[in-house]
Amino acid sequence: MHVLPYLVATYVLLVGCYGLATSRNLIHAVGCLAVCQSATYVLLLAVGYRDGGTAPVFSDVRPGSRPVVDPVVQALTLTDIVVGATVTALLLALTVQISKRHGTVDPDELRELRG
Amino acid sequence: MRASLSRHTANTVASVNFDQRAFDTMGEMTILFAAVLGCVVLLRQARDEHRDRPEPSEVAVPVRRYALVVLPVALVTGLYVIAHGQLSPGGGFQGGVVAATALHLLYLGADYAALERVRPVEAYEMGDAVSASAYLVLGLAGVLAGTAFLANTLLPYGTFNTLSSGGTVPLLNAAIGMEVACAVVVLLARFLDQAVEIAEESGE
Questions:
Q1: Which segments cross the bilayer (chain A) (predicted)?
Q2: Is the ipTM of this complex over 0.90?
């Protein structure tokens, strides 16, 4: 088992969290959330990796001739990416509305309610 | 993995997504559909806004030439990736995004009016709904044929490593590909509308 991909996943997650915590711009925050989510892609692919494995696609590899990585986590990663894209789209749509209604995208200036 | 090989699907990831766990993919598709619906609702034209005709703008000649050369290539690549989802890496999700992005090269290469001519948003919204229901109908066809919902037992599995192999996998792939392409087009159209056309009423 290799440690490096797990360290990379943790690092990417922490970088994204730092960006989220210090963000002064909602669009920037949405980007940071996407960075956080990309840590989960690395984590999932690392979980399914096998030493010397190749892609689990048998159009040019004879079945059984060499190890392949786990296809289930790859399918999960695909789902993860799709869900991430939809979340980003929805959040950006919300940001557009916020900037139109409140005239700002700084989360700190959104404290007071406006009727 | 043995199950995917027994069903003649060379790309095991596609087999996991569209055969063994096809029900989960249906949920995923529903999430995408709901997100598009949410964006359309959030980014609709409000009462105090109006539409401006976008100004035709000048595009640098190399950009225009590059976009027009790459557009057909990208479109065909997207369709190829969808069609070969059961054989090689790729599939409906990836190919759909590529095909939808190809259309928007027109926005870069020409201008917004040209994009609007080839992109009636209503048609793509319809396409989104039709392909989402096509996925459901394919699943229900399994029920009618006497097996389970979305079970891959309906069609012959075909010859391994050919375009028609994998039973219902290529059909579900095509449905997903169309759904994703339409969804991306609708989403980008809504955001571009906000950026280019819709403006607030002045003096309010």
A1: 6-22, 29-49, 72-94
A2: no
B38 and A56 within 8 Å at the Cβ level: the answer is no
Do A86 and B35 count as a contact with CB atoms less than 8 A apart?
yes
From the list A72, A90, A100, the residue facing B39 with the nearest CB is A90
Q: Which residue shows structure tokens 């989220």?
A: A20
The residue of chain A nearest to residue B34, with distances taken between CA atoms, is A86
Task: Kindly report the CATH number that applies to the domain delimited by A4-110.
Answer: 1.10.287.3510
The domain limits of chain B are 2-45+57-195
Gap between the Cα atoms of A35 and A32, Å rounded: 5
Tokens of B115: 């994009």
Q: Please report residues of A whose CB lies closer than 8 A to that of B28.
A: 79, 82-83
Comparing CB atoms, the residue among A74, A83, A86 nearest residue B13 is A74
- Name every residue whose Cβ is closer than 8 Å to that of residue A10 and which is 6 or more positions away in sequence: A39
C-alpha–C-alpha distance, residues B126 and B116, integer Å: 16
- What stretch of H or E contains B51? strand B49-51
pTM: 0.76
Which residues of chain A make contact with B187, given a CB cutoff of 8 A? 89
**pLDDT tens column, B49-101:** 777 666 666 777 788 788 888 888 888 888 888 777 777 777 778 888 888 88
CA B8 to each of CA A36, A72, A84, B89, B151: distance values in angstroms, whole numbers, following the listed order: 37, 17, 31, 15, 15
